[in-house]
């Protein structure tokens, strides 16, 4: 495949315009058009089509654009890591994680790793599950951690690490504190929910769908686990929270559990890597060894 033509195609796709791409690249519009046509001929696929006064990607064009983005993100990642080795001599490990592993598991693993391998630079980015997978796919992360039951991406390897208990919680003085009720009854309460893209929010909606009841009434939407639990402790609403995060609030009598008839929730934590990636850095393998030792 002609990578120069592919790079021009990604610019056209980014701008949704041949002329704007040509201006950005400081080459003539006919030159860009010729390269795109040659690429289409080489691949045997139509990538762009006319739409009004502009262009639009075909389904094949959209597929190629997403794959090309990952390819050029890999190029940037390689260049960055080479620069790090040239100027510092140290490896870097980029990690992406959803909130629960990031706040309650990774700090211990990262601290242990740095005690043994102090020269390796570690960077942790915390985001929701959708964003974390994008970070991994686009080479912004070397490995990732998510809590998610299904909807696994076909280009990602998922290594099961452990299950976590999840509890429904309310303010300590709430009338439902310590009670056992139906899921439908609980869904009548105002919920503190996570942002779109959160696997916990997706799980809660799926749970309601399975039990054929309306989804929770959103009383407050927050982006983090700690913020959400603090809102409950302050006296508002209910939420589905990981036990590892909620237990200290329960011990301090700031929140309380609500038990749901015939429902106990456990959710899996996965370590995620890109498929078909055969070689990883020594730091990558050393970090995985520490994790595997800690969960045995």
UniProtKB/TrEMBL annotation:
<dbReference type="InterPro" id="IPR036388">
    <property type="entry name" value="WH-like_DNA-bd_sf"/>
</dbReference>
<dbReference type="InterPro" id="IPR036390">
    <property type="entry name" value="WH_DNA-bd_sf"/>
</dbReference>
<keyword id="KW-0805">Transcription regulation</keyword>
<comment type="similarity">
    <text>Belongs to the LysR transcriptional regulatory family.</text>
</comment>
<dbReference type="GO" id="GO:0000976">
    <property type="term" value="F:transcription cis-regulatory region binding"/>
</dbReference>
<dbReference type="InterPro" id="IPR000847">
    <property type="entry name" value="LysR_HTH_N"/>
</dbReference>
<feature type="domain" description="HTH lysR-type">
    <location>
        <begin position="1"/>
        <end position="58"/>
    </location>
</feature>
<protein>
    <submittedName>
        <fullName>LysR family transcriptional regulator</fullName>
    </submittedName>
</protein>
<dbReference type="InterPro" id="IPR005119">
    <property type="entry name" value="LysR_subst-bd"/>
</dbReference>
<keyword id="KW-0238">DNA-binding</keyword>
<dbReference type="GO" id="GO:0003700">
    <property type="term" value="F:DNA-binding transcription factor activity"/>
</dbReference>
<dbReference type="Pfam" id="PF00126">
    <property type="entry name" value="HTH_1"/>
</dbReference>
<dbReference type="Pfam" id="PF03466">
    <property type="entry name" value="LysR_substrate"/>
</dbReference>
<keyword id="KW-0804">Transcription</keyword>
């Amino acid at each position: 495949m002609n990578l120069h033509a592919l790079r021009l195609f990604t610019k056209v796709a980014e701008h949704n315009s041949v002329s704007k791409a040509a201006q950005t690249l400081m080459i003539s519009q006919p030159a860009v058009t010729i390269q795109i046509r040659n690429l289409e001929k080489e691949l045997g696929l139509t990538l762009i089509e006319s739409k009004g006064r502009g262009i639009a990607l075909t389904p094949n064009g959209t597929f190629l654009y997403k794959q090309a983005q990952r390819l050029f993100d890999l190029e940037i990642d390689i260049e960055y890591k080479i620069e790090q080795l040239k100027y510092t001599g140290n490896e870097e490990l980029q990690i992406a994680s959803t909130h629960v592993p990031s706040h309650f598991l990774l700090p211990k693993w990262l601290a242990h790793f740095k005690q043994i391998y102090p020269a390796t630079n570690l960077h942790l980015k915390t985001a929701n599950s959708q964003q974390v997978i994008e970070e991994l796919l686009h080479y912004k992360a070397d490995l990732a951690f998510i809590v998610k039951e299904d909807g696994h991406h076909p280009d990602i390897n998922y290594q099961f690490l452990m299950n976590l208990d999840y509890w429904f919680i309310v303010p300590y003085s709430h009338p439902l504190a310590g009670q056992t009720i139906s899921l439908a009854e609980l869904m009548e309460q105002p919920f503190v929910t996570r942002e779109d893209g959160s696997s916990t929010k997706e799980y809660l909606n799926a749970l309601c769908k399975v039990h054929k009841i309306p989804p929770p009434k959103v009383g407050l939407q927050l982006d983090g686990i700690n913020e959400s639990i603090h809102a409950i402790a302050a006296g508002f609403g209910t939420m589905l929270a990981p036990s590892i995060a909620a237990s200290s609030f329960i011990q301090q009598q700031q929140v309380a559990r609500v038990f749901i008839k015939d429902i106990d929730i456990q959710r899996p934590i996965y370590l995620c890597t890109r498929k078909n990636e055969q070689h990883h850095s020594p730091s990558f393998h050393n970090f995985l060894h520490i994790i595997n030792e800690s969960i045995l």
